[in-house]
Amino acid sequence: MSSSLPPESYTARRLEHATPEHLHLTSRRTFIGPIPEGWLKNHRKQWYRHYISNGVRRAPTFTAVTPLPSGDVPSAQAPSLQAIEERDGSMLRNSGQSAVLSQNATSQTSLLESSGRQAAEPEEMAPSAASTQARQSDRSRINRVIAKTGTAKVRFNDAAKIQLRARAQRLAAKGNFRSNKVKDGEMLKMDRMLVRIDITQQAIGADFDEKVSLGVETRTLDKWREFMVVCRKHSEDDAQSILQLYQTRVISTNATEESKTKKKPKAQIVLSPRKTWVDLYSSLDKTLCVWTLEGSRTTIYYLRPQSGATSVEWYTFLRAALGMRRTTTLQVNVPDLNVSLRLEDPFSNVEHEKTLASAAEGNDEALAQAVNDEKGAAGMIVSRCLGMLKESPEWTDVLNAWAQYGRVGLAWKRYDRLEWVHGAVEQRMYGTIAMAKTHDLELRPKHHYPVSAISRKGAKLEEPSPIEGFLIRLTSETGQEQKRLGRTVFKRLYFASQNQYLVFLRPARARPPPPPKMDVMNGNIPSSAQLAQQTSLTYEVDPYSLSGQHISWLNAGEGMTTEERAARDNEAEAEARRNYDMLLGCDGFINLCDVQRVRKMHKGAIPGDQNIDQGSDVDFDFEAPLPESSGRIPDGTTSEVDEDRTFELVMKNGMIVRLQAYNKSARQEWIKRLRNLAKYWTSRAKEDMDMLKSVREQNLEALQIDERAEAMVGSFAYKWEVSQSYASPTMYNMCGISQCRPIHLSGLLFRKPRRHTTFTRCPVILSDGHLLVFQDTLRSRSGRKKKQVQHERVAAISLAGCYLYSGLLTENDLLYQNRTFDSDMPGHHALPRVYLEDGWTSTDEDAMTTFVVWHAQSKSWFRSSQYVDDVRKKEDSDAKELKGEGRKTTKLKRVSQLGVTGRSVVFKARSRAERDHWVMAIQVEIERLAAAEERAGGGQDVRLVE
């Protein structure tokens, strides 16, 4: 039996960054039932079909680990998931590359000027015939697949194909930007970006970033607006290219054909080495800045692509267009061993001459091969580094430990921040290598968010399994019994724990997990009573059960077919999607870190209990409303409470949450598991804050600075100034990147939904491309703070199509900044702050703690190239007319309107360190959404015309 699954499958992508044990621990859940029979009456059809039928079989969420240029790959050629689990360990055993090894070597890395996925870079490259053994093996495997499957069915959209072909032409021409193969007006690179334009009368040198901008007084000429940014070949004096800003999505592939487009570019920037400069303005959010000199006036263009990888790619490309050259060495630090590795010509495999020559001629297979070669660049760097370390016997123990751990990767380090090389950054490593100017590239074991904690008494606590199920709430959000005509109001809800949050949602939106074993009744949907009988009181949900150190259903000894394994993979993905949907549909949460005790019902703990009788007046098997109904009205009133089924959450503020389960046995299960969850997550949250404090103290001591200077150093220092700083891989872990948990990041922020409003403190949860905002404080009509037991949801921001910027660029959005005068620190406006909930302190300036999420408000209709192909030859349309085919109906798509101002949602973190966490996490989610849209065929919603 074959134990293989396609590398683009959901489980394969999870195993790329995590071990099977970690997948098991972060994917398991416990359902405390049963499922109410009344709920099944209105939801059983949809619920049963979703879990029992083929509804779980859906398109994969991730792309392939090693993308192939053909469509369907035979299962015999796909690598097994067990091989993927042991891949990094195999690297340690099979790598044998030689290079220069130097302990504590100084940085020899400079900008490697090229581009990635869609660019035509004007760079000087010397393709090398040498290719490493690993890449030769990959190329041979791809060739064998192509030979078996026939002609590769590679499909690029028009924009990508034109830009990839232009890029291949320059690479094949060895970087000769003045090559006659590229004519004036031809498109070289294109992306949709957020642009702001400033002007200044001050002189700016060859470098301009956040640190330099502190001493430059500027005036905003044009606010943030979204444009299509296009770079074209353009010969003028010493310039060889020009940058154009368009307010239209219909772009001409050649500037000489201006009559084909109605709109001309709003602004043009001639990329002259004498009058134009480019720099990476922000090392955090990767905003670019291009400035031009015209007389005594300097115009500064801030360019913000959606993806950080795309931003750095443009930076490399623009510097090459301005005549910058690259070096042929790359330094990789290994902090665990305190050594530095210097790689000579690390991208020789990407520069394969024959492939580039074929790609330059427009061969689809060669274009796909060139893209795949580039996507393997990061893996080859890891392989070469491991091979170099293997040559030194002193590192044998560490390498063996890494092989046992099983996951090693690359990360960019700057001060206390780690940016893991993954996804788009990994696939376009060749272009994003320009980050070496501000970051250090490091080889590290991949760390994940801890699954254990230490209690106050010193005992080790393992992370308990999350729980979920139906409950009846008998108290209000203020922890009091609501009275209506002398009766207690109760509400039926579905509760589910996600990290330290016990989220609740209306039963109409609930999606309980299916029982482990459910009979299939010949395609007929069982009745509500039959389904209720098949569901046990409590059962475990474990998509990745373990057999030894491997996932049980991936073991060859299990005797499962490939189709059965694919079904289990689909079930695991469906379970992950179910958890995301519940979190995104929640109405609020109770923070388990605020729970002091979980106990049985104590009659008399709440005023008015003397009027409540003992009984079971509240029916558990209720009939829930349909999902499309609001379901927000109270479910009913009662004068009886069954004490044997009821338990209480005693909060640290003295309030009480009273909940009622199905029966006494279910109540005991809820009490036991909630106690463990509250105890663990209270300890885990304390350890997280202690780690944040420890990292800061360690860096303050290593750099000999105080807390006031820490924010300046963290934001503006050059990398050589902070080379001795420490970055924690546990703080910047891989869980959010690999989506191990539904919650990517959570915490307290201060939100200003519009520019001319005030900041409000609010808990925020980042999950699945959304920012969920909750109410932090409940107040009376007079504004007085009231005690509360839960946090209601007040807003949700979808990050699809959004842009993110931070730092000094947010000063125009702050409007009302802290202008306190500190006599001890002239020029410093922020006074020291302490947050009593966890003892965290901060003296950071407002701009250093702020980030802005920008999204378009105005929409317009657009005929996407998905439906209208203006590049298609006229013969195709003539042939259709001859066949008598009717004209295809034009389909319109709703897109953001370019060239107009949007809406900015301003957030402030408690400190610079916490802001960096949020910016990095939100950027990962934005890039994931952009990649998913591109795979779905949406892309940039642009139409190219000749």
From TrEMBL:
The organism's place on the tree of life at top rank: Eukaryota
GO CC terms in record: prospore membrane
Residue ranges occupied by any Sporulation-specific protein 71 N-terminal domain in the UniProt entry: 1-65
PANTHER family the UniProt entry points to: PROSPORE MEMBRANE ADAPTER PROTEIN SPO71, SPORULATION-SPECIFIC PROTEIN 71
Protein name (Swiss-Prot/TrEMBL): PH domain-containing protein
UniProt-listed GO biological process terms: protein localization to prospore membrane
Region Disordered: start-end pairs: 94-141
Pfam families the UniProt entry points to: PH_4, PH_SPO71, Spo7_2_N
Coiled coil ranges: none
Biased composition (Polar residues): 94-117
Segments forming domain PH: 181-325, 465-681, 743-929
